[in-house]
Write a structure and sequence with these properties.
The complex is a heterodimer.
Chain A (H helix, E strand, L loop, with lengths): L8 H4 L36 H12 L22 H7 L2 H4 L11 H18 L3 E3 L5 H18 L7 E5 L5 H8 L3 E5 L9 H7 L4 E7 L11 H10 L3 E5 L19 E3 L20 E3 L11 E5 L2 E5 L15 H37 L4 E2 L9 E4 L1 H4 L5 H10 L6 E2 L8 E4 L7 H20 L1 H5 L12 H6 L8
Parallel strand pairs in A: 2-3, 2-4, 4-5, 5-6
Antiparallel strand pairs in A: 1-7, 6-7, 8-9, 10-11, 11-13, 12-13
Helix pairs in contact in A: 3-10, 5-10, 6-7, 10-13
Chain B lengths: L10 H11 L28 H13 L8 E2 L12 H7 L2 H4 L11 H18 L3 E2 L6 H16 L3 E4 L5 H11 L5 E4 L13 E5 L14 H6 L3 E6 L17 E5 L15 E5 L12 E5 L5 E5 L6 H4 L12 H38 L4 E3 L7 E6 L3 H10 L2 E2 L2 E2 L6 E6 L6 H15 L1
Parallel strand pairs in B: 1-13, 3-4, 3-5, 5-6, 6-7
Antiparallel strand pairs in B: 2-8, 7-8, 9-10, 11-12, 12-15, 14-15
Helix pairs in contact in B: 3-10, 5-10, 6-7, 10-12
The chains are: A alpha/beta, B alpha/beta.
Chain lengths: ~475, ~425
């Protein structure tokens, strides 16, 4: 990794340098607008092209990434992002497609969207699919708006409660709050399953929706799923599944068949589109047939041999400027087409085997949350190591030093010193074995030489950061 | 053998792992799933090999007119600007492309420092104090800015100026519908007679490209204790006064014009900037500068107590995955252009647009309606807009947006540095021929 100090562009700037040549204006000039509208100065860096390329290239080498490191970040599904999908997204007919062009001139784009809608409907068993949401959290939000509009349509405006397990991802209650729903927390068992008694005591006629993550955030399949969906339906509520963990279920089971009414899927997780250091992603929302008329607009349909955009009858509205994250949609569709039904099932199969193998090999060194077989990820606890003063955070930093990205730490919140490990199907057994070996070594170090862990990382561009300082005294832009 | 290049495990690897786990077979791992619901039939389209994928998607791409057009005058929130080679080269770097949100800052300094550059450059371009690390797109940035104003002012009345486009308004409605928020149209009220307000939203250049005197609204809304919010087109800031010098409190924009491909409407990036005093109500990710334990300057996600993973239902937004990679494109774009490039692009857009608008106005049956505009203008025509657009398209030119209303034929055209003088002359000739 690059350990050099790379000065910010403003500090590299020298008047008169430039990084691009541009054409002349080339037409007769017109008089400028009223001077009260005109800008007099732009304070931006001036750098040469090579220095600029070298700067950003050197910065890139200060990152861990899938292309360079094993990245077992639980619940994030850091799988390989196939290069072919990048190439396909830059095909001129797609990259230069203007969203304000008429449908008839965009048949290729609309066909991609229509076909992906169908494929995601088939995969989840929920046939009403909108590709509009721009990320998982927006997909969640769309799902909740659909639930609200559905209840309103049926004269059930009073349904304002969202039941959310205490093990849920933070976006669930945040989205519920944006949708004007009151979040009520449902207890989970020590294994992260819904506490049925608690659910029964809190469900009632005001229940709008249960938000459930499946597999749960502990990486376990909810064994009472059928009973749970029945309880909610008996009270006139809808069941929403957070599809963040869909990588465990491709061809294994279908949300729609389990009684789930609404789900979203993160295309940047299960369907391999690159995470980009934190987006862009896409979070399509899938619903049962009878909720289809509530989907966001624009939605894509096929009439005879033409693809058209339209507004569903009871649509929840527009979620963004155009038709969603098309570049991401295209990559995800290419991924599904490159695998087909059998290939997708193998994705989940290998993801599940890899996670269970890690769980089995590490269970005597770390503390397992559950002795059950996991799905695509396993949650370990570092409570044993904590007795020697080594916390989950310290283990994470030591892993970074050893060239492995850290697992997700301290999530789910219900597990003390949680380390959530998701290897995905992308990693070879050799890589996984090296990771296991490293985890065992760290556990041994926690007893023999804890300081070596506490000092980590020492092999990276920077050592541990003063994150409190950043929040106490926010410096968010260049200071000269 | 597996059927996919994306799975490295061999049959033997899987056998060894399943044995080590101690189950008989793969199904032995799935005992929590009710049997009746296990292994449903999956009927997807046939799979394609890599060369077949290239062929298939190339054919699909060819079904879009974008595969063959010479030049385009479409705008309306998404603009056809030149994307420098530097931008294309940098986003292909897997170290940026395939990293996650930088939760482990020691292993993510690349992404974080780029994000800090992005925040700094956008803040400079807007002359605003701070900028977050990016929103999903322009319309969601404006919607969240309005909600932010409601939180800051503890007031639920959002006033919309007529300059704001329908699309922006629609997204705001979807974002506020269930939050007990009132959206008021400025032309239907007298602001001076209202009680306190949360904010006034103004778009400049406006939905039809017209430059609005944003500063003139400042006293009006501030007297009502509300915030002035401007939605803008960042390319125009190379020529026009930035929000920071117009007494604007929060400024947003669609960042697509700064180096991001049209890509049928996304992924783009929303720009959200504000005055310093409001940073704790900002939605989304924010990157801050700090030091490591040796005092070395470094960067980290900061002010995270605003966010959903800490604050849950009381978070300032539900944003998790945002648009970091598009932020990289914008950062490389702005630093490639530099102050002179940003200014030159804006002037080129302005002068070419005005030249074209004046020439169209001289054609019989075409009437320029726009007055003080940046690079997008409205023409009233005798001929139907669909006829004009079809005719231009036969000549591989994308015309404008049809905004006909009240029985008037209205076309909105956007001109950028990618519409060369010869593209413009050719289009003028075609339009001239059409009117004869």
């Amino acid at each position: 990794m690059n350990n050099k100090n790379l000065p910010l562009l403003m500090n590299q700037s020298k008047k008169g340098r430039k990084a691009i040549s541009l054409p002349e204006i080339g037409v007769e000039k017109s008089s400028l607008p009223n001077s009260k509208f005109l800008r007099d100065n732009i304070d931006l860096p001036e750098v040469g092209q090579l220095d600029l390329i070298r700067y950003f290239t050197n910065l890139s080498s200060m990152n861990f990434s899938i292309d360079t490191n094993f990245y077992p970040l639980g619940s994030c599904t850091m799988k390989y992002n196939p290069k072919i999908n990048e190439q396909l997204s830059s095909i001129q007919g797609f990259a230069n497609a203007h969203p304000n062009q008429k449908d008839e001139n965009l048949q290729g784009c609309l066909e991609v969207m229509y076909d992906l809608q169908n494929e995601l409907g088939e995969i989840t068993g929920l046939p009403g699919v909108s590709l509009a949401p721009l990320a998982g959290a927006q997909g969640e939000y769309a799902g909740l708006l659909i639930a609200r509009e559905f209840h309103k349509y049926n004269g059930n405006d009073h349904k304002k409660i969202a039941l959310i397990p205490d093990s849920a991802h933070g976006t669930n209650p945040a989205s519920a709050s944006m949708a004007g729903l009151e979040a009520v927390t449902i207890k989970t068992t020590s294994e992260g399953d819904i506490d049925i008694d608690d659910l029964k005591s809190k469900v009632n006629q005001d229940t709008a929706v249960l938000m459930l993550t499946l597999p749960s955030t502990l990486g376990l399949f909810e064994p009472n799923i059928i009973e749970i969906t029945e309880i909610i339906h008996d009270n006139g509520g809808l069941v929403y599944a957070d599809g963040a963990n869909l990588n465990a279920l491709l061809g294994i089971t279908k949300f729609g068949e389990l009684g789930i009414d609404i789900c979203h899927s993160n295309l940047h997780k299960t369907f391999s589109t690159p995470h980009g250091g934190g987006g862009p992603g896409a979070g399509p929302v899938m619903v049962t047939k009878n909720l289809e008329s509530f989907l966001p607009y624009p939605h894509v349909k096929k009439e005879k041999n033409n693809y058209e955009t339209y507004t569903p009858k009871n649509s929840i509205g527009r979620l963004n400027g155009f038709l969603g994250s098309f570049g991401i949609v295209l990559r995800a569709y290419a991924y599904i087409r490159s695998l087909g039904s059998q290939g997708l099932k193998e994705i989940s199969e290998n993801a599940i085997i890899n996670a269970n193998y890690i769980q089995e090999k590490l269970k005597s060194h770390y503390t397992l949350t559950s002795s059950r077989n996991c799905m695509h990820e396993t949650v370990l606890s570092a409570i044993k190591q904590k007795e020697n003063g080594i916390k989950a955070l310290d283990i994470a930093k030591k892993l970074l030093d050893e060239g492995f990205h850290a697992p997700t730490m301290y999530f789910p919140l219900i597990v003390e010193e949680a380390l959530m490990i998701e290897p995905t199907e992308s990693e070879s057994k050799e890589t996984i074995d090296q990771f296991i070996e490293c985890m065992i070594k760290i556990s041994e170090l926690s007893e023999n030489n804890p300081n070596e862990i506490l000092n980590a990382p020492i092999n990276l561009p920077v050592e541990r950061l003063d994150e409190a300082l950043a929040a106490r005294n926010p410096v968010l832009t260049w200071k000269k | 053998m597996t059927s996919s290049p994306y799975i490295p495990s061999t049959d033997n690897d899987r056998k060894e792992m399943i044995e080590a786990i101690g189950v008989k077979n793969f199904e032995g791992l799935l005992t929590d799933i009710p049997k009746n619901f296990l292994f449903p039939e999956l009927k997807l389209q046939d799979k394609l090999s890599e060369p077949e994928l290239v062929e298939y998607f190339t054919e699909l791409g060819n079904k879009n007119v974008a595969s063959k057009i010479k030049t385009s005058f479409l705008g309306g929130g998404s603009y056809n600007h030149y994307i420098p080679s530097t931008v294309k080269a940098m986003i292909q770097r897997g170290e940026f492309l395939t990293a996650y949100t930088p939760y482990q800052p020691e292993a993510s300094q690349g992404t974080l420092q780029v994000g800090f550059e992005f925040q700094s450059m956008i803040a400079q371009l807007f002359e605003m104090d701070v900028c977050n690390a990016g929103m999903y797109d322009g319309p969601t940035a404006l919607a969240e800015a309005a909600l932010m104003a409601c939180r800051i002012k503890r007031n639920n009345k959002i006033v919309i100026h007529e300059s704001v486009s329908e699309k922006l308004l629609d997204v705001l409605k979807s974002y506020s519908k269930w939050q007990d928020i009132e959206i008021i149209h400025a032309d239907q009220i007298n602001i001076s007679k209202e009680e306190d307000l949360a904010c006034l939203l103004v778009q400049s250049p406006d939905k039809n490209g017209e430059i609005i005197d944003v500063e003139s609204f400042s006293d009006q809304i501030h007297e009502k204790n509300g915030l002035l919010i401007q939605h803008t087109y960042p390319t125009s800031l190379g020529l026009l006064k930035p929000p920071g010098s117009l007494n604007v409190d929060i400024a947003t924009a669609e960042g697509q014009s700064l180096g991001v491909p049209l890509s049928f409407g996304g992924p783009y990036i929303g720009l959200l900037t504000c005055k310093n005093e409001y940073i704790r109500q900002l939605p989304g990710r924010i990157i801050g500068q700090t030091v490591d334990k040796n005092g070395k300057i470094s960067f980290a996600l900061t002010l995270q107590t605003r966010e959903q993973h800490i604050r849950r239902e009381s978070a300032t937004s539900n944003i998790c995955t945002s648009t970091q990679l598009i932020g990289l494109m914008v950062a490389v774009y702005v630093s490639t252009m530099g102050p002179h490039g940003i200014k030159h692009i804006a002037e080129t857009c302005f002068h070419r647009a005005h030249y074209m608008a004046k020439k169209i106005d001289q054609i019989e049956g075409f009437n320029l309606l726009s007055k003080e505009f940046f690079n997008e203008f409205v023409i009233q025509t005798d001929i139907s807009v669909s006829k004009i657009n079809s005719f231009l398209l036969e000549n591989d030119i994308e015309g404008g947006i049809d905004i006909s209303a009240n029985g008037k034929n209205l076309i909105m055209l956007a001109v950028t540095e990618l519409n060369s003088p010869s593209n413009i002359e050719e289009t003028l000739n075609l339009l001239g021929g059409l009117s004869e």
